[in-house]
Amino acid sequence: MHSISTIAAFNQITKNKTKGITRSIYQRLTSKIASVSMEPILIVHGGAGNITDARCPGKLNGMKQALRAGIKHLIPTEGLSAGSALDAVEAAVCIMECDENFNAGYGACLNLEEKVELEASIMEGGELKAGCVTLLHDIMHPISVARCVMQNTKHTFLGGVAAQKFALEHGFEQLPEDSLITEDARLALKEFKECQAKGLDTTFARTELDANQKSNEQGPSTVGAVAIDRNGNIAAATSTGGITGKVSGRIGDTPLLGCGTYADNLLGGVSTTGHGETIMRFNLAQKIMGKIRYEKKTAQVATEEACKEMTGRLIGTGGAITIDPQGQLGIYWTSQRMGWAYVKSGEIFYGIDHGKQLKEPL
């Protein structure tokens, strides 16, 4: 566990904006944090919104699969991994991008032109490096493209034709057109267009639908992961297909740092999910980080307060998962449901309904 005095020292240094923080001071603080071995933790979310009973089992299973894939990269294993938070969050998100139970990669929602446009972001908390992509099409793993941007360019964010070209030039496969589209995504778009034709409000249109769904509440299902490794390094990653019926070219909160994703070894890591326009306007990830830093709130209190404040002010719902530098977790959402799961000490803790937590061996 990191000492409070270490974090307090960082806060004191950065209070004086005229002096700022030098690289050498930052390195001394982070080396002090890294000198204390942390218990590795990986947490994921499978989206927040109106998740029907029929879709719950698939989401819970998918998140557990993601944890089992990601933890292999987080726990030091001889000959396999030294233990990397960044590797862990990418691996976890990749699993969910392949799973049609989530609105990311295969299973992503459709825009008005009946096409999938994908976006993602990934960030590491040591040097605050990040990679963001948007408006990709027919690429299974936008989260890996985002990491490639982070590690192979001097830029942070690529979008549209340039992002697609970059992905192909760096060995990512462009799948056959429309191969990421599922029947559920088509159903959701069909309902969206029917509501639009009737003059109904589609601001919070659903991003997923199944044959048994009756409610008219929104149902975003972005995926995300946050991890802390044994050295105290924090990483966060988020991936999505956006919202059903969006105009072609619309960009949401997921690829925006401070909205959909953020990581800082001295403050924590966050991945958010929910109504993108609401999260962007509220700057949800940074609001959570601010409560941890300036108000000295725990990860749980910061996450819960920020989500409630966002919905209270802007109506739109959402949720977030958070890990602070001490390895404390924050999990909260203002929508009907949010799929979440984390692995700690060889056990998986998970849930999808408010007030209900399940547990099973890893």
Automatic annotation (TrEMBL):
Alphabetical keyword list: Autocatalytic cleavage, Hydrolase, Protease
A Pfam family reported for this protein in Swiss-Prot or TrEMBL: Asparaginase_2
Active site: T222
Keyword Amino-acid biosynthesis annotated: no
Annotated Gene Ontology cellular component terms: cytoplasm
InterPro entries: ASRGL1_meta, Ntn_hydrolases_N, Peptidase_T2
Protein name: Isoaspartyl peptidase/L-asparaginase
Catalysed transformations (reactions): Cleavage of a beta-linked Asp residue from the N-terminus of a polypeptide; L-asparagine + H2O = L-aspartate + NH4(+)
Site (Cleavage): S221, T222
Keyword DNA repair: no
Subunit and partners: Heterodimer of an alpha and beta chain produced by autocleavage.
Role of this protein: Has both L-asparaginase and beta-aspartyl peptidase activity. Does not have aspartylglucosaminidase activity and is inactive toward GlcNAc-L-Asn. Likewise, has no activity toward glutamine.
GO molecular function per UniProt: asparaginase activity; beta-aspartyl-peptidase activity
Organism: Glossina brevipalpis
Binding site for substrate: R250, I251, G252, D253, T273, G274, H275, G276
Family: Belongs to the Ntn-hydrolase family.
SUPFAM superfamilies assigned: N-terminal nucleophile aminohydrolases (Ntn hydrolases)
A GO BP annotation: L-asparagine catabolic process via L-aspartate
